[in-house]
Amino acid sequence: MEVQERILRTAAKLFMELGVRNVSMDDVAKALSISKKTIYKHYQDKDQLVFDTISMHITEMEKNTTQIMASETNPVLQIAKIADFVLEMNKNVHPSVLFDLQKFYPKSYTHLIEHRNRYAFQSVIQNLQNGIDTGLFRSDMHRNRVARIYMCLIFSMFQNTLFEGEEKRDFREEYIETIRYHLHAVTTEKGKSLFKEISWLNINK
Prior knowledge:
Layout lengths: L2 H16 L6 H8 L3 H7 L3 H26 L3 H15 L7 H8 L1 H28 L9 H17 L11 H16 L2 H9 L8
């Protein structure tokens, strides 16, 4: 692995686990056992490093989601498998990550929002249409509205703003309940029967 990629992946891990604002360039250098000067040879400042970690995150999300959508034709299982991937990718996410991006790294935050509004939203639309076509999802729903509601629910958990002041929340359990909530809302009786029977892969770990 090249130095630049090592820096990027190490920084991404630290940002996710500790919060973006809480991690300095010194922290990244220390984690890699290299000098801060070496980091600045590849990244002019922390803003650029943060932006590139977000870009890497988006690329990996799109790649894996596309693969799942292409290899799994069942719309209920598509949701389950994507949820499983998202949970694994974000299993150690710090609750302040999205807030830090929004407040201190607006360029990176905008980049993430554009991904949500473009690729993620269209993936949800595609999944809903697939469900309607196969008779597993309700045909009377307004796809765009349902997709927006679903995206808002998912995104709000990462923003960590819905229930500020609460005791420590279990992100995994909240995410799973949100997926189940969504599936109960969109499935037909045929679809409900299916999603009650599936193993949910690793989703109940």
